[in-house]
Amino acid sequence: QVQLVESGGGLAQAGGSLRLSCAASGRTSRLYSMGWFRQAPGKEREFVAFIRWSGSNTYYGDSVKGRFTISRDNAKSTVYLQMNSLKPEDTAVYYCAADETYLLNFRSPQEYDYWGQGTQVTVSS
Questions:
Q1: Surface-to-core class of residue 36, CB atoms within 10 Å of its CB (0-12 exposed, 13-18 middle, 19+ buried)
Q2: How would you write the chain as a 3-class SS string?
Q3: What is the 8-class DSSP label of residue 26?
Q4: pLDDT in tens, 17-62
Q5: 61 near 114, Cβ under 8 Å?
Q6: Are 32 and 52 in contact (CB under 8 A)?
Q7: What letter would DSSP give residue 85?
Q8: Strand order through the sheet with 18-26
């Protein structure tokens, strides 16, 4: 089993920055794919960013491209989401997700086997 714990959420002003962390524990050696999603009240869960534990490719949702950066620290089994130029519409609960396979359809939340509990991000105008 794998456990994911997010941290780093909170309140930020528009134009500000936050960095989210997702620490994986348990059978982390089997993980291959990591993603960040977010869900605002009354809305569907939205793809934010994706990275694999090996390789350098990263992928982003259109609404965050150019403002958010996903990265990883393999030694710490931790994935980060650096969020810059925050907007009020970025307000949501942010979730970390992981899977043991080489995901191709990584934008779909249904593809992931493991999820964190979520961390609230609130951006004020």
A1: buried
A2: CEEEEEECCEEEECCCCEEEEEEEEECHHHCCEEEEEEECCCCCCEEEEEEECCCCCEEECCCCCCCEEEEEEHHHCEEEEEECCCCHHHCEEEEEEEECCCCCCCCCHHHCCEECCCEEEEEEC
A3: E
A4: 999 999 999 998 888 999 999 999 999 999 999 999 988 899 999 9
A5: no
A6: yes
A7: S
A8: 2-7, 18-26, 78-83, 68-73
Distances (CA, A) of 39 to 1, 61, 69, 91: 24, 13, 18, 9
Question: In which residue are the tokens 């977010």 written?
Answer: 38
Q: Give CA–CA dist 70/51, Å, rounded.
A: 7
Amino acid (1-letter code) at residue 47:
F
